[in-house]
């Protein structure tokens, strides 16, 4: 190579253009640097993403996308299920609570008074309307407690129906054949399977047609009734009613209760009327402290069991005639 005269280095030859080949070593390095620079620029220039994307309302007519099904997660049992109370037990408990519930207190009203030998008169509205003299058969009565006790026992005994009965070996069906032969079996001799020692056999000494009726003379019965009525009259517990009348075609039970409350503190009472009144009977049927009787159906036990005797004025003479010694029994 010839050397330059001026001592300068020879001029460099222009670089030859290298052909781009897909497998050259410079290509991957440049691509990696370019990708890294683009990634850094994107991180700097990109805005921050919002925390939650606002849902847009779907356009009209567009089908809504179905929400994603939530996954069922088992939760611990924190509630104790009380077993259902049976209907009968619940009904009995409610009935007991209703009975034991405190009722509103009603101020007791004293009964009207009358002088000895007389009885207070009660008007139709339940107010006091004077006094009336009682018949002598209900006032002047000899006290004979033995007769009263004997008449009460006889009356209670006569009220027994005596319908209880049992079957003896003659009335029990079956048992006609002999269970086994008389001898040779080693067992006790038996003649019928309806004997008392056998199951389903007859009863030996059971009740069968027993009678409890006791006969009492008519004078003793009338004397006992008169003494019982005289005892109530002496204590001021015999009241004479002018009229027993209630408004309406079908009086209610509450009407009878209010009527008795206007009279006073009668307690357990018996009402003696001249005739049977179905209207009053239906209204007073549910009252356990009031019984309706007529002079012919009044019993000694009714008078002794009652605290107050209410007598309708037309029935007063008939009641006195029954209590008189010479009257009808």
Summary of the model, kept short:
With 329 residues, the protein is an alpha/beta fold. Helices cover 29% and strands 9% of the residues.
Number of strands: 6
Give me the number of helical elements.
8
Rg measurement, Å = 56 Å
Q: What low-confidence regions span 5 or more consecutive residues with pLDDT below 50?
A: none
Overall outline: flat
What does this structure look like?
With 329 residues, the chain is of the alpha/beta class. The chain has a domain at 118-143 and 218-323: Ribosomal protein L4/L1 (Ribosomal Protein L4, Chain: A), CATH 3.40.1370. 29% of the residues lie in helices and 9% in strands. The chain is built from eight helices and six strands, in the order ααββααβαβαβαβα. It has a six-stranded mixed β-sheet. Helix 3 crosses helix 4. The longest helix is centred in the N-terminal third of the chain and has 20 residues, at 26-45. The protein is flat and about 150 Å long. The model has no long low-confidence stretch (mean pLDDT 81).
Label this structure with key terms.
329 residues, single chain, 6 strands, Ribosomal Protein L4, Chain: A
